Amino acid sequence: MTTPGWTTPGQTTPGQSTTGVAPGSARPESDTTGWVPVCRLADVPRADGVAALLDGDVQVAIFRTDDDTLHGLSNVDPFSGAAVLSRGIVGEHEGVPVVASPVYKQRFDLRTGVCLDDLSVRVPTHPVRLVDGVVHVAAP
């Protein structure tokens, strides 16, 4: 699949992982390897997140930390039920990259999805990768 303005997927850039929001309203299709291209890395601001809608109505929040590491979590806040985590505040707590939900402010570890404020709660994580400047999420 080639999306206008995106590069053709190639080799994964060594040492990088990724995440982001698909432009427009069309849902991205997964490629033959089971990865879904969702946006260009440039579309994901540092210390911020974007949302992507994958096949099957799966919402993924893609986050880019200040050091350019990308993380993928479910976009659904388990405390409010709202699909808003991509709009949360990205930061760090004691060396752990986190996003704070914009609703009730619970913090979630971007690496594991575990809620730092209630360790019994966790949001699903989604593998991400960067290929030729394009962010891909593993197909659900």
Which outline best applies? globular
Overall mean confidence score, pLDDT: 83
Roughly how many Å is the radius of gyration?
14 Å
Helix and strand pattern: EEEEEEEEE
Question: What's the count of strands?
Answer: 9
Helicity level: under 10%
How many domain modules? Answer: 1
CATH topology: Rieske Iron-sulfur Protein
Structural class: mainly beta
CATH superfamily: Rieske [2Fe-2S] iron-sulphur domain
CATH class: Mainly Beta
The CATH architecture designation is: 3-layer Sandwich
| Percent of sequence in beta strands | 25-35%
What's the main sheet like? 3 strands, antiparallel
Mind sketching the topology for me?
Elements: E1 35-40, E2 48-54, E3 58-64, E4 70-74, E5 89-93, E6 96-100, E7 107-109, E8 128-131, E9 134-138
Antiparallel strand pairs: 1-9, 2-3, 3-4, 5-6, 6-7, 8-9
What does it look like?
The protein is mainly beta. The protein has one domain (35-138): Rieske Iron-sulfur Protein (3-layer Sandwich). The protein has no helices and 9 strands. The chain has strands at residues 35-40, 48-54, 58-64, 70-74, 89-93, 96-100, 107-109, 128-131, 134-138. The strands form 3 sheets. A 3-stranded antiparallel β-sheet has the order 1-9-8, with no helix packed on it. Strands 2-3-4 form a 3-stranded antiparallel β-sheet, with no helix packed on it. A 3-stranded antiparallel β-sheet has the order 5-6-7, with no helix packed on it. It is globular and about 35 Å long. The two termini are 18 Å apart.
